[in-house]
Design brief:
The chain is an alpha+beta fold and about 525 residues long. It has 2 domains: about 450 residues, no CATH class; about 70 residues, Sandwich (Immunoglobulin-like). The protein contains 10 helices and 22 strands. Strands 1-4-6-5-7-10-12-15 form an 8-stranded mixed beta sheet, with helices on both faces. A 4-stranded antiparallel beta sheet has the order 19-18-21-22, with no helix packed on it. A hairpin with a 2-residue loop joins strand 2 and strand 3. The chain is globular and about 85 Å long. About 50% of the residues are buried.
Length: about 525
């Protein structure tokens, strides 16, 4: 799968900033070195109740691609460990057209991080849970165990790099600056990694099965191991006749991290957050139907509620701010387009009702709400190719053509205007927002005010050259109005009262030639050259 996906994904160029070219914030490298299919751990998953070793059947091997900026002269670079989306089941079989580390958005994210000077590990983690279990408690327990196993895997990966550092530092990383980044279910892993560190936290009343009358822990560390990936039913600890359910990887090395970046993730309970947790930053759609923006139930199409009272980015980041965990971001002046756009989006989100039925409150720092106008938007950065899904991916996971068609339709339900241009814009916005804050959290930069807004870099037009139709889109601010001038300075076209981040002009009727397009926004005016054929 890797080679076929990579050949497709590398044709996607990331749209980047070139304002002041600050390493770790802006793209400063063009070419990358990539180590493919690096095995970082081995373990046991559970698929429909049956233990399955990683790399067997549809359970992926715990492999990763490692991206490094080519020609870099810095000996030790910060490490970002990135985790893809997928609802903890194989792509297509999860009912979605995404769910692998070779997804287009995941590849673009990792390339974008590496071009900014980070070393990036794009990792697989264990899949497997049973959404069709007989009771809501069993379904909840099955999903929680999947998240938990993902946390164990991510910690094994961190320890892998620390072990490697002490044995030659193959990849040139700085182990004092390790950052977790995740999309969707990967965001759940990242947030859980940073917050779960006590047995009581995973044995709250809502995490107990009381159907038999006697409370039973849905997460039994004596069986599946602790949150660091130690113990449980190992090869030496499993009772006679019991299956091995955990393999300890790279024991004895630290799995500390220093910052978490979450795209549409959540945590099992707000009480998991405590003062002293690492800084957290998030992007999230208030319209997300699965990972509720505030706090609500996790539901899966066709089976209903899986687990209850799960907190999404709004409540998580608000609490992290209140606890002082994000104080490193305070007393900064953010003049970049992404931060200004996040401020505007927070203001616009106030008063919205999320799909958990909660009215969104006052703006929250360190959170970028993505408001796209689609009623069930959850991951506007996603993009996929149905031809590849049918011809390449389906045979690898044993999916039928009908399942591919259903997965594609499900993806379009929340992302009906899915396109490569849209995905690139939201990946760029995410990296632009995240990287500045990750660099602050890890001491790579000491001030946020390292560049000024350059609207020409955040407003896009397509197709170019154009004919009678032209789309103008911004990933940083709304567009209030558009004016098109001939090369002699005469106004040839204008459209007023737009107030949206995308405008489609379908009636230009302009003679062939060169024009200047001015897009007026609340934070300034962009001027771009346009050729009409």
């Amino acid at each position: 799968m890797r080679n076929i996906f990579t050949s497709l994904l590398f044709c996607f160029a990331i749209i980047g900033f070139s304002i002041s070219q600050t390493r770790y914030v802006d793209e400063v490298f063009t070419n990358l070195d990539i180590d493919s299919s690096v095995l970082y751990a081995e373990n046991i998953s559970v698929l429909a109740g049956t233990p399955v070793p990683t790399g067997v059947s549809v359970i992926p091997a715990l492999e990763m691609e490692i991206y490094r900026p080519a020609g870099d002269t810095v000996a030790e670079r910060p490490l970002i460990i990135h985790m893809h989306t997928g609802t903890f089941l194989p792509i297509i079989l999860n009912g979605n057209p995404t769910g692998t580390r070779f997804d287009a958005a995941t590849s673009m994210m990792c390339q974008g991080y590496a071009k900014r000077g980070y070393v990036v590990a794009n990792i697989e983690y264990r899949l497997g849970w049973n959404p069709m279990d007989s009771t809501q408690a069993l379904r909840a327990g099955s999903l929680m165990k999947a998240v938990y196993r993902g946390i164990q895997d991510a910690k094994s990966c961190v320890r892998y790099f620390r072990k490697d550092y002490e044995n030659g530092n193959t990849y040139g990383i700085d182990t004092s600056k390790i950052i977790l980044s995740g999309q969707g279910s990967g965001g759940w892993i990242a947030l859980g990694y940073a917050t779960v560190d006590k047995l009581a936290e995973i044995q709250l009343p809502k995490f107990l099965d009381v159907s038999s009358g006697t409370p039973v822990a849905l997460l039994d560390t004596a069986v599946i191991g602790d949150w660091d990936g130690y113990g449980g039913y190992t090869a030496t600890n499993a009772p006679i006749g019991a299956p091995v359910l955990n393999i300890e990887n790279h024991a004895g090395y630290s799995n500390d991290v220093h910052c978490v970046l979450s795209m549409g993730g959540g945590i099992g309970d707000l009480s998991w957050l405590e003062a002293g947790d690492v800084p957290m930053v998030a992007v999230h759609c208030p319209t997300d139907p699965t990972a509720i923006y505030t706090t609500g139930d996790v539901s899966v199409q066709q089976i209903g509620i899986v687990t209850t009272d799960i907190s999404g980015s709004y409540d998580v980041i608000k609490e992290a701010n209140t606890l002082g965990n994000n104080d490193v971001f305070l007393n900064q002046t953010y003049t970049d387009a992404y931060s200004l756009a996040a401020t505007a989006a927070n203001n616009a989100a106030q008063g919205m009702v999320d799909l958990g039925g909660t009215t969104v409150g006052a703006p929250v720092n360190n959170l970028f709400p993505y408001i796209t106008g689609n009623p069930y938007e959850s991951s506007p950065w996603d993009v996929w190719d149905t031809t590849i899904l049918h011809a390449v991916v389906a045979p690898l996971v044993g999916a039928t053509p009908a399942q591919v068609t259903a997965a594609n339709a499900n993806g379009l339900t929340s992302n009906p205007d899915m396109s490569i241009m849209k995905a690139m814009a939201y990946v760029d916005s995410t990296l632009g927002y995240f990287c500045r804050r990750a660099a602050l959290a890890t001491g790579l930069i000491t001030t946020a005010s390292i560049d000024e807004v350059n609207l020409n870099d955040v407003i896009y037009m397509y197709p170019v050259p154009a004919g009678n139709q032209l789309t103008i889109s911004s990933n940083a601010t709304n567009i209030n109005s558009v004016e098109i001038y001939s090369i002699t300075g005469k106004m040839a076209f204008n459209k007023l009262n737009i107030n949206a981040n995308t405008v489609e002009l379908n009636d230009l009727n302009l003679p062939s030639g060169v024009y200047i397009v001015k897009s007026n926004t609340p934070i300034g005016t962009s001027s771009k050259r346009l050729i009409i054929q």
